[in-house]
């Protein structure tokens, strides 16, 4: 690899993968975190709840936070095209994926792309608050007029946000909904990675049977765990979520050490 190519790859890593090499001396496993629609990398503060043996790398997509000036991507394929070589290039540690809502779809699609490339696969997928990809969306939203979409979002993703901020974020959220709602599942062979699927027990948008349906997409172990809360249960359960992941995520064939309290 030339110096120029190496420099470009390093810049792309820093842009897309926050937290990379933040625990260079202690990490034995890496967890890539994929955000929900409209969210940026800082929406998840999971790293502080994990032991030093796990390096947490939230994915920063275009169109949010420090990448707000960039146009958001509009398809799963476009996101995976960018992420696949970056993640494949940083497989010196065993790694897992955690994705919430839209992030679960991105994590799932990226794992399939890595398999197609012949690259190392995640040791486990942690998929949260999204119906299995072969199930149709109940009510697509990305095509709604701004006023109608805002009205829907203020009951979920935009709950409690200032109205001006809601309007500022609306184009990014619409793009992310387009990513999810235009995805076409082509029934590829199940992944050999074990799955842990999470959900909120009061989430009206994703019901337990729709979470259980993920079982069809893995040929390995499958587990479903429910947390108290609605679609965004992760906001209030990050420590419990981290504990659940840390005790399941294998580190070179062993369980991780207990999480920090």
UniProtKB/TrEMBL annotation:
Domain Thioesterase: start-end pairs: 30-247
Q: InterPro entries from the entry?
A: AB_hydrolase_fold, TEII, Thioesterase
| Pfam families named in the record | Thioesterase
Q: Highest taxon of the source?
A: Bacteria
Spell out the Gene3D superfamilies in the cross-references: alpha/beta hydrolase
Q: Which family does it belong to?
A: Belongs to the thioesterase family.
Q: State the name under which the record lists this protein.
A: Thioesterase II family protein
